[in-house]
Every structure is written in structure tokens, then in C-alpha cells.
Amino acid sequence: MEKILIGKVVNAVGIKGELKVYNYSDSDEIYRITPELYMDDNLYQVENVRMQKHMVVLKLKGINDRNAAELAKGSEIFITENDLPELEEGVFYVRDLIGMSVAEENGNKLGTVTDVIQNTGQDLFEIKTNDNKQLLIPKVNEFVKNIDKDACCITVRLIDGLMDL
């Protein structure tokens, strides 16, 4: 069973053992629909989830006061692979994209996806090219023509000069 990192405890909230969590997922919904979460290697039942500005506030069974919550600072929050919600057609988890090979439409193999950068206007595929360079390709229809999960391959169309940057 693989655990998937979805957040990190950054602080305690109040005196009843609530945890302020920095959310790594693109939605706070995963905290609401998952009845149990791992904090580091320990499994906890979720008692309550609420939002405080852009942070998730969790109340986990067994963490009942501020002292226990303070001890959890820095802990990572995980779900299991079975807890991942099904995605719509054409939508992928970043974890599924990393490691995919990348090739041009003509079959020329460019390299492998090493990361997906998501803090920009559009997602960027970070590619380690076959000659050990780094290439960033925007995940937009103009460049990304096909993502084949079964073949573990992304087909792209590059513009002139992109490989020269």
C-alpha cells in the first residue's frame, strides 16, 4: 500500500488539539472525504475538517489538546492510494505523469518527465532530456498533443528554438 503525501502540519490551532495543515493537493475536498489519514506513520480517524483562510484545520481522534497538537508540528499527512478519487477522462495525478517518456509527434524521443510545476499560469512539464539538459514544456494543447497513460508516453509538438533555450 503506497502512501501519498497531501499536506504538512504547520501549527496548532486553539486548545482542543486542532492542527493547521498546509495542503499539497489542489483541493481541500480530499480531507473531507477520507475518514482516516496517516500522520507520519500513524493512522488517525478524522473527526472534523474546516478551512481557515487557505489552510486546512484538522481535528484527529486522539489528539485532544494543544500540547499534543504542538508535538505534531512538522508531521506530514498522507492518504493511501485507495483513497484517491477517480479522475475525469484526460485528467491525471502528477504522480502518474512523473517518469513518463516524452516524444515529438515524429517519434523523436526527447526525455523523461521529472516534475510538474504547478505554481505558474499553466502547468509546466519539467523534462530531463536524453542529453541531460532541462526542458520546460507548458501543458497546453498547443504543445501537448497526447498523454497516453497506458503507454506511459506524452507526445508533444515543439516550437522552433525551444530546445535551444
Report what the structure shows.
The protein has 165 residues and is mainly β. It has helices spanning 29-33, 66-71, 94-97, and strands at 3-13, 18-23, 36-39, 42-52, 55-60, 76-80, 101-104, 109-117, 124-129, 134-138, 144-148, 153-156. Strands 1-2-5-4-3-6 form a six-stranded antiparallel β-barrel. A six-stranded mixed β-sheet has the order 10-9-8-7-12-11, with no helix packed on it. A hairpin with a 2-residue loop joins strand 4 (42-52) and strand 5 (55-60). It is elongated. The N and C termini lie far apart (41 Å). The mean pLDDT is 89.
Order of helices and strands: EEHEEEHEHEEEEEE
Structural class from helices and strands? mainly beta
- Separate helix tally: 3
Mean pLDDT: 89
Task: For the largest sheet, list the strands in their spatial order.
Answer: 1-2-5-4-3-6
The first-to-last residue Cα distance is: 41 Å
Helix content: under 10%
Short synopsis of the structure:
The chain has 165 residues and is mainly beta.
